[in-house]
Amino acid sequence: MNRKLIDLWVGIFVAIGIAAFLFLALKVGNMSSANFAETYVVQAKFDNIGGLKVRAPVKSAGVVVGRVADIRFDPENYQAVVALKLESRYQFPKDTFASILTSGLLGEQYVGLDVGGDDRMLAAGDVIAKTQSAVVLEKLISQFLFNKASEGAEQK
Length: 156
Known about the structure:
With 156 residues, the protein is α/β, with parallel strands linked by helices. It folds into two domains: 32 residues; 104 residues, no CATH class. The chain is built from two helices and eight strands. It has an eight-stranded mixed beta sheet, with no helix packed on it. Strand 5 and strand 6 form a beta hairpin. The termini are far apart.
């Protein structure tokens, strides 16, 4: 093989390696799912969002129906306001219930939507009235330990 052919093959493998690295970086950064479908934005207010992040998935029945577009703090109500960017092909009733869930025991957090039975559908700019905040593992452990300590004190 001559030198130019070897240089060509090395260049091809380097380009493939860079493309693979870029693909993995986008996959890890949760940005590979660039979606250009039409969307509408609704908001939900939570007392505690835990580790929820922008671009986290919004799921209904296990299917990704949108992404978290923005998270901000409302200083008047002392709540987190989460903007959900939902795909227009998915319509949800006005009494939809939004909760912050975790994939697995210690996985990423996402917003889960449980549909209601209302005939009217959510529209752009609407606020989801029924929400459930994230379950914080530290609070559960401290409540468990506090209950065990109080049970021990009552038995003496």
